[in-house]
Structure formats: C-alpha cells, structure tokens
Amino acid sequence: MGAAKLMASNDGPRVAALALEGWDTHVNAGGATGQLATRLGGLDGAIRVFEKELSAIWKETVLLVVTEFGRTARVNGTVGTDHGTGTVALLAGGAVKGGQVVTDWPGLNTRNLFEQRDLAATIDLRAIFKGILHDHLDIAQNRLAEAVFPGTASLRPVRGLIA
Predict the structure, then answer these.
(1) How many CA atoms lie within 13 A of 68 on its CB side?
(2) Which residues of the chain register pLDDT less than 70?
(3) What is the value of pTM for the model shown?
C-alpha cells in the first residue's frame, strides 16, 4: 500500500486520511462470509501492511478506523444493514492502549434502539479524535475545541486510549 510506504519515509507525513470504498452493503451483506466479511478482511490486510511498513515506528503509531454512517441493528429486507445511526471506531497501532472496549452500550433491546431500529450513538466520534490528538500528539484541548473542532468546548475528549 503506497500510503504506508509514504508515511514510513523519514520526510513523510505524520498524519493521513485514507478512504476505502465499497462498504455500502445494502444487499446481501452476509455474516461470516459475504460482502461485509470480505471488506473486513481487506481492512485487516491494510492494517497489516501499515504494521509491516511502519515497523520501525509502530510503537509510536495510531490508526483510527471510522465510518461516515452507521448500521442498523437488524438486517433489512434485502439482507443488508446500511444507513443506521450508531457505528464503531477501531484503534490499532503500537501506541494504542489495547485490550479494551470503550462504550456506553445500551444493548440491542428494541426499546434501547434509536427509533426502534438503529444502534444508538452514545459517543461522539469527535471525542475519540480529541482524545487521540491530545494524548498522542499533545495538541492542547483549547486548540482542539477552537480550531480543530470549533464549538466543541463542552465535548470532553475520550481519555485512556493511548499507552
């Protein structure tokens, strides 16, 4: 993967954003096999490439995987789960304090779902970003609230994600 090689170079970027296409699984998403499993396998392979290419600095590396839309709690009529609200963020890298799940999990009971169909969003992804940017890159919280995520002074960063 070219991005990993670029970031591994001494004069390469230290922050990057990448887009992986093909996650819009409206139909036949599948379980252990199928479109979603195939996409997740590709994501796993991409993370492994980053780990290999950045091996010299892996202990200082944080990868954050997020999606721009959530999933429904149950499959729809075409066996897909697209266009829900709640989602997941995954962290990888040697600088990550692993072995934990950070959540305010309401469960899958229908009464706990948003509009009785979607996973309820319980943590603002910007709070995840703020925690990583502060704890890993030492960006001041007031700078994050004013310049990076304007208008988020009351949104506290999620702490304890970085080793």
Answers:
(1) 8
(2) 1
(3) 0.85
